[in-house]
Give the backbone structure.
Amino acid sequence: MKDKSAMDEGTKRRLIEAAGEGFAQNGYRAATVRAICQRAGASVSAINYHFKDKEALYEAVFEYAHRIAMEKFPHDMDLKPGATPEDRLRAFIRSTLLSHLGSGFPAWHDRLISHEMSNPTGMLDTVKQKYIQPLHAALEGLVGEIMRKANPTHKPDDDLVQLGAMNIVGACIFQHHARHNVQIVQPFAPGPAEIEAIAEYIYRYSLAGLRALATDKDGQTA
């Protein structure tokens, strides 16, 4: 017989997964606690017990989605200590693409984001502060390392480092959004091999660009 803590954890997870589906289908405001509980096979009082209220449940859904993605594809992809900045950049890009194009985020994540963007509750600000900004800071650190390695006599300009990181993220996000646009014309569901190939291309393109910027006119933009 399962102990109470295991049963509570199972109920909590069912509520989060049911809420993810419910919020993704109807949006935060239209989704009801009662419908979520029916989908999860739990009582309405379970929401108060585990999350206090609907808003806290909504935040837990976003936390769950990002935690699942990071557990499957951590941004360092479990590299050994002492890995080069180049290897860490490759891992970061692979992690980002595998999370968004592969099986990192739950299937309902994109629809959830779409609802939040069209009818914002402010939750994306929380997501940005908790999950996106720390990852972006780590990426900027990598970009700076690579540029300093390419030109050890010059400290890379902060704006150049920021632009480099933004372009890497932009290349990854483009692949995510392009998937939906391409599907209008023809089916597009990249498998693991295709995702790895895209990641390697973005890595090599980005690495060459960062090295070129670091050594061009002492790292200054034209």
Remarks:
- Residues 1-60 form a domain with the Arc Repressor Mutant, subunit A fold (CATH 1.10.10.60).
- The first helix runs from residue 4 to 30.
